[in-house]
Amino acid sequence: MSDDQLQQKLRAYGEWRGQNALALQNYRDWLDKYDLNSSSVEESITSMLHNLGTDRITVAFAAEFSRGKTELINALFFAQTGVRLLPSSPGRTTMSPTEIYFDHEHGSYIRLLAIETRLNDMPLSEYKCNPDSWLQIGLDFNSVPHMQEAFKELAATKRVPLDEAKNLGLYIEDAGTQIADDGTVEIPRWRHALISFPHPLLQEGLAILDTPGLNALGSEPELTLSMLPSAQAIIFVLAADTGVTKSDLDMWQQHVRGFGHTHHKGLAVVLNKIDAMWDELQGEENLEKAIRKQIAQTTDILEVDEKSIFPISAKQALLAKIKKDDALFAKSQLAPLERYLAEDVVSERRAIMMHVVGDKVGRLVNDSSSVLTAQIRGLEEQLAEMRGIDQSNHSTINKLMVETREQQGRYMTSVEDFQASRRVLSVQARMLVDALSLERVDNIIRQTRREMAGSLTTMGMKVVMKKVLDDLQAVVDRATEISVETQQLVQAIYKKFEEEHSFTATKPAQFSMKRYQLDLEQLFAEGEAFRHSASSALLEQSVVIQRLYGTIITRARDLFAQAHKDATNWGAMVLSPLVLQIKDHKRAIETRLHMLRKISESTQSLDETIGELEQQLAPLRRQYEELEVVLKVLRGNEGPA
Length: 641
Prior knowledge:
Layout lengths: L3 H30 L5 H16 L2 E7 L5 H9 L20 E4 L7 E6 L9 H5 L6 E4 L5 H8 L5 E5 H6 L16 E5 L1 E7 L3 H4 L2 E7 H7 L1 H10 L2 E7 L6 H11 L2 H4 L4 E6 L11 H19 L6 E3 L2 H10 L2 H7 L2 H53 L6 H42 L2 H17 L3 H44 L12 H19 L1 H5 L3 H32 L2 H25 L5 H29 L7
Parallel strand pairs: 1-8, 1-9, 2-7, 9-10, 10-11
Antiparallel strand pairs: 2-8, 3-4, 3-7, 5-6
């Protein structure tokens, strides 16, 4: 009946991120200490440290008006304030999409973006990088009444002429919007709100996205195509006493359902307001039957697993928390939803980040470990060989020297082949990077922007948008062809050295366009679905189509920028493990020849040679022990449960 469980899970996840960040810093120090760092490795570590330091777990709430969504947010996260913190009383509902988090750098505030910015091409993501574009209100988090008063601004509206509402994409004909006698309609005052304050859950990395109504989702493509997919969980709120209405179903099908395909544990349905079904004359058993019936109907209509549906009373849960009424809290049935957030959502996010850390940086550490292991094994083999030599048997020593020189000759030949292959790979990798050039992408975008501006009809804009998507898909297809050829070349180079010199380097890192291709296809599919959705169809104004185009293009460009960066880093680093092993192999051959020559010329005793090898081996073992500490953390062995 408190935030303790969720806070503990978030804190444990934060500690896990901190441990991994410390491990990466230790790895960077280890590389610097032994002069093994490089610009590409340093960039990978720096990027991952940033990701670990800024990662948030975002829970998005989606619902039509009057479903009790904001009250649910109050009950889940802000009951400890002792009041209804966010405006959720009748007539005071949240009107603009709102993000709630804690900004460690800039402290507490409310930032409000004027509704008129919807007429501009600039996406919300760019506005967020420019605080001067927002009205900022200071928050005194020590004064709950002050925060309550400040939060009332989230429900602010204003009246504008009908034409202005249409231009803003905020008037839907035949949707019940009231037109006053003076020809004005009521619209939200603010397009978007950002709230930062030091609530314990927010300080631990939780972020909340509150999205109002089907109309808002239907006229703000960035919400549907960018912000909702970026969340770790979506809570879709229904009213238990009415069940799934037509507008609920429209929102579900057009903007929410697809999230479950990519976030298997991240989509939950809340049947709120079960207190409306409470009836002392009916009895608990009949009440439970009524709730189960509503759950079954919701399961059939939305086609979801019954386990993902939570019947609750947010209003009674908030009251119970404030009054510390355990019986009422149990009756509100909020606890299962709290457990879901604490266990499933946080655990899934941690699993995702574990994979990202392992894929982006863990491979580098494993490569370092493989090279170091090979060095240690090579020295141990030399030690065993030296300990088995009879120093007086010069023929054996000479034979070993001849074998080592022959090995050196074969090595030099293979190195020449490697350098030739490396040059070919460099050209191939450059082709891949050039195929993903942002200049190429921007040329496509600039051309279609001109065509979009010159189109006077919604249909014409849609044709232009289809063309840009086809052109960008062609870029992906070409990059995919080159990446397959490049990957095959890399594998052939590794295989050659593995067969000829028994190298055991970690298998080369893979670079595949598959992930970017799938993301782009999904983006285009979401864009088409949005374009054909009922809410979008009702908003045929060019401003909505332009905003949809801008949202898709911004996300697509970000996708290409990431692919370009990843391809560049991959091309620079993919042969690094092999290069290190080649250098180590060369050093091992030269060391072996040098020691055999000393023994042969009797300038050094066998015992001295063995002692010299042992001296070389000891620091390598210490290096490995230092690296093993980093590896254990990155493998999750020391992370919290």
